[in-house]
């Protein structure tokens, strides 16, 4: 399935947006966390600054998110993982409300209750979880619902190669194949589960091979490339929509930052992240667009200005929104 | 302790890894496994240095497969090994709880005492740094609720070393829960008091012995973990107002030092339980019930007070989290309330 000009441009713009979003977050997150503002003896105060708590950035992994989401509609479900921003942005989650959530503001997606790992936007059917592997069975549930309700909506579960060693992953694959669910499992192989290399956690090289054991197609995308992901995902999503059942896709991708911000990355060969940036998928897609006369300097500049305005507006919105009232902690334990 | 003992100041994280290293050196059956316990040295530094000292056969990085490696710890313990199995955050126990509460906790009992399972589950607990609902819970009461698990919750480096050594030597499954906010991590602000003098030599602290952290005569604050540090700060503040608060650190939930609680409350006549776990059906209720059951011998001057997370998941946003997790000021206010209470009013 070939991407249309419109789809290629969409993927490019979303990748630029995700990257700008993550690089802005990398800066904002550090505010007030480093000396001299922090107390003595501390190298880094994770709880300080405008965006506290853990922060997992996805810069480098954009192709996975856009290549899959290019095939999705608003009523398709996406369940992301603890590293959720690229999926959320590609699924058109409200950017302002998402950012406000990371600032812990009352205007956030979860009114400040959830934070960066727990983003919920029912308007575009997006959710995620800080529990590794938890999303796979949940996507099966969304797919089951689509089947029962007689829609042709599909569900996508995104997670890392580390998560593919969880029991939940294997149970979900079996369920999906058994019930012929319209679900696509997408594994992002960024080589590491925190500090543990894939070769030290997984006995086989590719999770795509595991699909056979459950009776579904398994596809390995070996390049961190939006078009390659788009093609593999197109087949899988179409198959799911036709009611022919699930697919497992693994994409080899790159994580440019540490596992979380503040990660000393002692497990990573020196200079690896820098080297990975040499194969940045954004200019690669940009070059393809140019070679097809779909992009020139002027259009690229206009696109980048548009994206910057959007991202900046979201950060401004988050920063300038009010905090919730402390007692609001007591609300929303149960539905009213 | 003998007078020749050498001590240094250690963080709680260093104390735990030192206890583990010394036991591993003493007993070849002891080994460690868990996520990122090797090269990374544990996300909360509880296993720092162990890989260099003992190599990857005895300090095993696992896949993210908690059911797998918790069950494997049980199986290895049944064969006479002594595994230490780290569950990175206590919040993740959900993915492997069947292995823990249906097997690790019960197999000894179901075997009529025939089988032994000497293993330690270590795990990080607690909030205070805005990590939200899936990474900030304490949950020790859930483990303590299940018969067959010993439950240890240290508040400082000295105790952590002695309790960890005891945990590894215990022939039972022990759940050892350390609060991230008192490990002495360089990337998290923490409460002073948890980093303290620790002997180089090995020593054990028996389970089931609470510690009087600070003596007082007006009110007893029963607490544990990071709340000990908060309670000490509160007690200092209260002292300025002429209120003398006794702080009792439970140190272990199973076994629970009921006698120490009763002895202190008998003397002071007032009880505040300060807990970072959820309020309902938990530790604070247990301690309150203990006093109620002994009300014929404990003369209370005011009703028991409980301070805990008010039955809401831990929220992300700073003002919300500060509200949900009891703070020093809340302890002070609660004690003041206890002091001004008149029984006959
Ligand atoms: C059940 C569970 N176990 C462990 C963790 C801690 N943890 C968070 S992210 C992570 C690594 C995940 O690796 P992977 O699935 O490859 O995703 P990546 O971080 O590389 O995107 C771990 C171990 C968790 N959040 N949940």
From TrEMBL, chain A:
Cofactor: thiamine diphosphate
Oxidoreductase listed as a keyword: yes
EC number: 1.1.1.5
Keywords: Oxidoreductase, Thiamine pyrophosphate
Gene Ontology BP term (one): pyruvate decarboxylation to acetyl-CoA
Residues annotated as domain Dehydrogenase E1 component: 53-326
GO molecular function: pyruvate dehydrogenase (acetyl-transferring) activity
InterPro entries given in the database record: DH_E1, PDH_E1_Alpha_Subunit, THDP-binding
Key word NADP present: no
Full protein name: Probable acetoin dehydrogenase, alpha subunit
UniProtKB/TrEMBL annotation, chain B:
InterPro entries: THDP-binding, Transketo_C/PFOR_II, Transketolase-like_Pyr-bd, Transketolase_C
Protein's name according to its UniProt entry: Probable acetoin dehydrogenase, beta subunit
Domain Transketolase-like pyrimidine-binding: 10-185
Keyword Oxidoreductase among UniProt keywords: yes
Pfam families for this protein: Transket_pyr, Transketolase_C
GO MF annotations, alphabetized: oxidoreductase activity
Membrane-spanning ranges: none
Originating organism: Azoarcus sp. (strain BH72)
Keywords: Oxidoreductase, Thiamine pyrophosphate
SUPFAM superfamilies linked: Thiamin diphosphate-binding fold (THDP-binding), TK C-terminal domain-like
Superkingdom of the source species: Bacteria
Cofactors demanded by this protein: thiamine diphosphate
């Amino acid at each position: 399935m070939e991407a249309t000009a419109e789809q290629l441009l969409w993927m490019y713009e979303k990748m630029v947006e995700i990257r700008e979003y993550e690089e802005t977050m990398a800066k904002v997150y550090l505010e007030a966390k480093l000396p001299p503002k922090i107390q003595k003896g501390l190298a880094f105060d994770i709880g300080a600054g405008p965006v506290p708590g853990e922060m997992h950035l996805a810069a480098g992994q954009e192709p996975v998110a856009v290549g899959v989401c290019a095939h999705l509609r608003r009523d398709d479900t996406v369940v992301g993982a603890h590293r959720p921003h690229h999926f959320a942005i590609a699924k058109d989650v409200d950017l302002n409300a998402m950012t406000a959530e990371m600032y812990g503001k009352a205007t956030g997606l979860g009114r400040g209750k959830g934070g960066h790992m727990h983003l919920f936007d029912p308007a575009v059917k997006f959710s995620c979880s800080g529990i590794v592997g938890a999303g796979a069975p949940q996507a099966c549930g969304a797919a089951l619902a689509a089947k029962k309700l007689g829609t042709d909506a599909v569900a996508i579960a995104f997670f890392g190669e580390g998560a593919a060693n969880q029991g939940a992953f294997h149970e979900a694959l079996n369920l999906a194949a058994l019930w012929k669910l319209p679900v696509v499992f997408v594994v992002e192989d960024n080589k590491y589960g925190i500090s543990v290399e894939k070769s030290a956690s997984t006995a086989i090289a590719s999770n795509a091979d595991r699909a056979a054991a459950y009776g579904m197609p398994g596809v390995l995308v070996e390049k961190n490339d939006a078009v390659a992901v788009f093609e593999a995902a197109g087949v899988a999503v179409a198959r799911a929509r036709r009611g022919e059942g699930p697919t497992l896709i693994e994409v080899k991708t790159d994580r440019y930052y540490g596992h979380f911000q503040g990660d000393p990355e002692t497990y990573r060969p020196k200079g690896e992240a820098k080297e990975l940036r040499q194969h940045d998928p954004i200019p690669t897609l940009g070059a393809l667009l140019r070679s097809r006369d779909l992009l020139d300097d002027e259009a690229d500049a206009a696109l980048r200005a548009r994206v910057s305005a959007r991202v900046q507006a979201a950060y401004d919105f988050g920063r300038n929104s009010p905090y919730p009232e402390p007692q609001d902690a007591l609300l929303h334990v149960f539905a009213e | 302790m003998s007078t020749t003992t050498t001590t240094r100041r250690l963080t709680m994280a260093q104390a735990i890894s030192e206890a583990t290293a010394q036991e591993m050196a003493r007993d070849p059956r002891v080994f460690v496994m868990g996520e990122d316990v090797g090269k990374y040295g544990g996300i909360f530094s509880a296993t720092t240095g162990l890989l260099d000292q003992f190599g990857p056969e005895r300090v095993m990085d696992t896949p993210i497969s908690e059911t797998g490696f918790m069950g494997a710890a049980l199986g290895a313990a049944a064969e006479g090994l002594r595994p230490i199995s780290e569950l990175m955050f206590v919040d993740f126990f959900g993915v492997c709880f069947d292995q823990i509460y249906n097997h690790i906790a019960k197999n000894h009992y179901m075997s009529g005492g025939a089988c032994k399972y000497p293993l330690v589950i270590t795990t990080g607990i607690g909030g205070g740094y805005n990590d939200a609902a899936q990474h900030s819970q304490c949950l020790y009461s859930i483990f303590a609720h299940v018969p067959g698990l010993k439950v240890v919750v240290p508040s400082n480096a000295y105790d952590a070393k002695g309790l960890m050594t005891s945990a590894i030597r215990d022939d039972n499954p022990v759940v050892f829960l350390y609060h991230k906010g008192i490990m002495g991590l360089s990337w998290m602000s923490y409460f002073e008091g948890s980093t303290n003098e620790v002997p180089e030599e090995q020593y054990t602290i028996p389970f089931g012995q609470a510690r009087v952290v600070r003596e007082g005569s007006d009110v007893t604050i029963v607490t544990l973990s990071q709340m000990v540090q908060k309670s000490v700060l509160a007690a200092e503040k209260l002292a300025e107002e002429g209120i003398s608060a006794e702080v009792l650190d439970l140190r272990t939930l199973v076994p629970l030092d009921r006698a120490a609680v009763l002895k202190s409350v008998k003397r002071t006549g007032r009880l505040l339980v300060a807990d970072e776990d959820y309020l309902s059906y938990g530790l604070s209720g247990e301690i309150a019930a203990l006093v109620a059951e002994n009300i014929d011998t404990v003369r209370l001057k005011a009703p028991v007070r409980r301070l805990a997370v008010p039955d809401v998941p831990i929220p992300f946003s700073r003002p919300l989290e500060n509200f949900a997790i009891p703070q020093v000021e809340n302890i002070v206010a609660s004690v003041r309330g206890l002091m001004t209470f008149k029984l006959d009013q």
